[in-house]
Amino acid sequence: MSSWRPFPRILLLALLVLGCGGPALADAPKLKAVATFSILGDLVAQVGGDRVAVTTLVQPNADAHGYTPAPSDARTLAEARIVVVNGLGLEGWIDRLIKASGTRAPVVVASAGIKPIEASDDDHGHGHGHAHHDDPHAWQNVANVKRYVTNIRDALVRVDPDNASTYADNAKIYLATLDSLDAEVRAAIAAIPSAQRRVITTHDAFGYFTAAYGLSFIAPQGVSTDSEASPRDVARIIRQIRQEKVPAVFLENIADPRLMQQIARESGAAIGGKVFSDALSGPGGPAASYVMMMRNNVSAFTAALRKP
Question: pTM to 2 decimals?
Fold first, then answer.
């Protein structure tokens, strides 16, 4: 007598359903997320992984401070499921753009919960109008970026709860990477002699870095790049470099290099290379992600400042 029995119909149907559902799930449309600038876009991509399609309004190597939105940006926001902004007064143009777009997507402030430090615009005689004079460059402290990541994770879970476990897992892995990065930065700066921990950059984008890691920055422009440095500011910086024997000035990827080249030439300081303050490099560049950006900057600082 044969031992074969007809395959139970209910199990056969279940297998058919599961077999057809696998590819369908894999091909499910990705959640459309919009981030205001490239650093933030990378953080959203790290947490969202393959479940999120991220569009960045301000592209790599571009300045978010004085960005002028294009009509296509309004269309992009209108199609978004979630919009992620830095906050702290960085994107002075975003509220008008959101209103013009008519988007119904929730707007997430990635820096929410971070204690801002006071901008130093007044020290330079500028008045760039950042809300409450907050310094918006909170990402220059890796510990703050951990808050960015948890805020982004929680927002994605609210919008797309079906993929909550994916967002939680991605965030957990990335938070561990940030812990390692923070330790790297601290060790690298600690290896620089304390008397040499001073550099010049184009605008005052590194206040949070100073507070967290102890490297001092001097800049002819305040926390915003909206206004040019005055001749008085430039002369003051040159005097300070000479008096304090500041060893290096650094070019920023978002700024015209001519000002810093002038300061280096007239002060006698060396040009220490290019750093990335407010934007990533392009995909093939040395700062194509947030982690790469921080490592590139720290490498440039240490190479210039540890020289005898």
Answer: 0.84
